[in-house]
């Protein structure tokens, strides 16, 4: 029996779960569950945030007991994160960033990178599964399992808006492995907006009116995510439509703390005080605290930093330095949020081949530049939206938001919010727009989990739902049958298999374009996504496109079982696509001449892009 | 010490009759004789245990708290080191580490509030029946409540204290494990 609406924020650095009883009172706020987790050897404590880290204990350490599981060889949470400092080769962090990595096999076990032989490495999917499993077990331990187990509840799991079809698919795989059965995906910035409406109560309808465009700026520990949500009037009532999402940017608060720590490390070392690995980790942590203080309190000129040595001697061995206002302004405010022109673009440095197995961190640290690109690329996002206020005069060069909602721990800092809003207002002013308002009033750390739970309630008819469908159009690559010329790639055209804005639970009708598939052999198709081509209907074939309009995604693969057919035969098939109720893209191949009714095969997404490149 | 509660006394005639009965039964019934003997000895051997007002505290949660403050704020390291020879500046640097960490740990595990909310230095009134655990009278202490005096220290009260669960077999006496780096 379904008793609770549950929202899960599976974050890059932290995860959280919130729940609300379905029979609860109207307007009841979802509660954030305290998650029991190992906090030190032999000690378990319940905390609202579960750090998304996994530690493989060495056999000498014995079992990693939890209240519901006495024998476990690994642990998830605070102790795992702490072990990341003193035994890093046994710890997985940032599994979520790996989950969206396009050029590695995300189902292959390669984490932790550089782990010793006694560890059986696991895949990014399995690491995510372990985090979700921990939350599910904690939920069942609290509510008694059985009918109240998480498997029986309506669960909304958040993903970055910028996650493409394959990263979403893998997230769902992890959730199903963790025993979550009634699952729906939700984009994190939408969750933040739901949380905000919840925090504001009915008053939010005064802040967001038809014609408004809310820009959600979500800067978390590891990722930066932009979304635009428009408020329109339809049949006399307000409707919210998510009109655009940005690219996946691996850039967040952790990068800022690392940059500050790097600066202070130089300062200490130039004074002849070396910093060891454990001290480096403490330094990063101290920088985060000092950064938050300096950015939150304009009267402070400097924040003192003291880093203890690893030995039991404290006095005489503690490093002391300070982080000044100048430094934090230079490194964080001007470094990550520089005042830039509206037409400035992130720089792309070519990456060394050796970084292949590393994460594709953003090569430009400027959040404002990434924002400028987003707004420029999405200038036409409102063009086809019914009920949006008509853009008068000349065509704007930018998407014009009217309000900003911040999310993520980094955006707690007044100074950074102010810098971003000021920069945005200058751009809008130059483009003939009005300044934005800031939507206040949500808890930035737990908003996504709470908002996800609110969405689970909305799906049952309690509150206003944000529409929008898929934030991308998807295309399959069709290689033209020209004679092969050595050294030259055959030209590829792209057929749209799922148009932009396809809603959950709908199917796209494709024209009977035939693909020949060899029975018994895997056939790989090139796969593309676009966040800007809004007008391509299903079946439209593009012969060419602008460079940044289509992004190539990991290829998809189809293997026809030999059942009823002879191996090596070529079977003509056509494709059909649907967006599942869960929120993932499902592509199927249907034979033109089926052997039995309803015969079709699933096309697998998220297969490894290139066997030489991946791990 | 509290006296053991006295049994109700019997009249003399009843006692004489009882003594007479007992005299013969003790002679003929060995088991009865043993019980009488036990009844005579009992008051001396097992005086009614006075309800104890003192209890020895369980030290495991105190050890755990020390371990927590060491883990988060290096408190044991700080207190175990002899600081007499160090200049104040050095002590200040170390105190920052200890203060920042212990404060974070304390805030995460305990909720602490002042016993009295008035500003220190303000005049406060104490009505009859105030709790001597909550308020300590200092200075010229005499007479009967109500009292009026100056608040010198607001006091602290722990609203709650929650410590991690301990897995069976965990040795709480290890406040911090020794660390040995391999490789």
Detailed description of the structure:
The complex is a heterodimer of chains A (615) and B (183). Chain A contains twelve helices and 29 strands. Chain A is α+β, with helices and mostly antiparallel strands and 615 residues long. Helices cover 25% and strands 26% of the residues of chain A. In chain A, helix 11 links the parallel strand 17 (403-407) and strand 18. In chain A, helix 3 (124-143) crosses helix 4 (165-177), helix 5 crosses helix 12 (447-458) and helix 7 (253-270) packs across helix 8 (277-296). Chain B has 183 residues and is α+β, with helices and mostly antiparallel strands. Among the domains of chain B are: 16-44, no CATH class; 113-157, no CATH class. Chain B has helices spanning 12-28, 30-45, 60-73, 75-80, 88-109, and strands spanning 110-114, 123-126, 147-150, 156-161, 165-166. In chain B, helix 3 (60-73) packs across helix 5 (88-109). Residues 1-6 and 42-46 of chain B have low confidence and may be disordered. Strand 5 (43-47) of chain A pairs antiparallel with strand 5 of chain B.
Short précis:
Chain A contains 12 helices and 29 strands. In chain A, helix 5 packs across helix 12 and helix 7 packs across helix 8 (about 275-295).
First and last CA, distance of chain A: 42 Å
Count of discrete alpha- or pi-helical segments spanning 4 or more residues of chain B: 5
Q: Provide the helix percentage of chain B.
A: 40-55%
Structural shape of chain A = globular
**Shape by Cα distribution of chain B:** flat
Strand content of chain A: 25-35%
- Structural category of chain A is alpha+beta
Would you give the CATH topology of the largest domain in chain A? Nucleotidyltransferase, domain 5
Q: How many E-type strands of chain B? A: 5
Oligomer: heterodimer
Q: Can you summarize the main beta sheet of chain B?
A: 2 strands, antiparallel
